[in-house]
Design goal:
Elements lengths: L3 E5 L6 H13 L5 E5 L8 E3 L5 E3 L1 E2 L6 H10 L6 E4 L7 H14 L2 E6 L10 H9 L2 E4 L14 E6 L2 E3 L9 E2 L6 E6 L1 H5 L4 H4 L15 H11 L15
Parallel strand pairs: 1-7, 1-8, 2-5, 2-6, 6-7, 11-12
Antiparallel strand pairs: 3-4, 9-10, 9-12
Helix pairs in contact: 2-3, 3-4
Length: 242
């Protein structure tokens, strides 16, 4: 049975790479796909991955009827065996309904890829509609990591490395942007709540204050006394053994 499948995840977790892999695998077997995208980082009418792969796509701008576009293509003698919709979070809810109609009325698999929530942790309207309509929602297993090393679950918008929580929902940007450009960073929930980006935390290392590798018992005691004087009273120097 044909399905509408929503592949979701944070930025930088390989959504577009998987979309390109699905396109490659199916086209290698003689199947032809229709690829829709919107506001891709590579420009209009492109589906691109941060790994450097890119292919042509149909720009699904506001007001484009995806179902009608596909029917017109088929009516003109074109062949379509499946549909890929990347950056699906930017699609209007009505366009998500059109993707569902492609599955139900034309009998084609539709693979949609997108971010679930925006930089304010609010659902994108397109992603919300996909969760409501999709036959399956697949969370990508390639985990993006927060600067602290934990699994990244939220997308943060940054300006000059500092997190911002106000502004338009859709602003095209990418991760690791320099200077004062609008960029994005993936964070764990804890650091997103605290608005603590890598730049704000000065995260040069995950654990900058560590004990010496060859620290002996006396070194440990002295470290505890220095760091926590109030608790040091209960700690005594280790006695020497003959």
């Amino acid at each position: 049975m044909p399905e509408l499948v929503f592949f979701s995840g944070t930025m930088d977790c390989g959504k577009s790479t998987l979309a390109l892999q699905i396109e490659h695998n199916r086209s290698a077997r003689g199947l032809q796909g229709m690829i829709f995208t919107r506001d891709d980082r590579a420009g209009t009418g492109k589906l691109s991955s941060r790994l450097g792969l890119v292919t042509e796509a149909v720009e699904a701008g506001e007001g484009l009827d995806l179902y009608a576009y596909l029917v017109a293509h088929l009516s003109a003698g074109g062949k379509v065996d499946y549909v890929i919709a990347d950056e699906a979070q930017f699609l209007a809810p009505l366009q998500i309904d059109q993707l569902a109609r492609i599955v139900d009325d034309l009998g084609l698999d539709v693979f949609a890829f997108g971010i679930t929530t925006d930089f304010r942790t609010k659902l994108f309207p397109g992603s919300q509609r996909l969760v409501e309509l999709a036959d399956r929602v697949e969370v990508l297993q390639v985990e993006a990591l927060c600067w602290c090393g934990a699994r990244a679950t939220h997308n943060a918008r940054t300006v000059g490395g500092q997190m911002v929580v106000e502004g338009a929902q859709v602003v095209v940007g990418d991760v690791n942007q320099p200077g004062n450009e609008v960029g994005y960073e993936v964070l764990c929930r804890r650091h997103h709540r605290r608005r603590m980006t890598a730049a704000a935390a000065g995260a040069a290392a995950l654990s900058p204050d560590v004990l010496p590798v060859d620290a002996g018992p006396a070194d440990v005691v002295r470290t505890i006394r220095t760091a926590t004087p109030a608790a040091a009273a209960s700690v005594s120097e280790p006695s020497a053994r003959p």
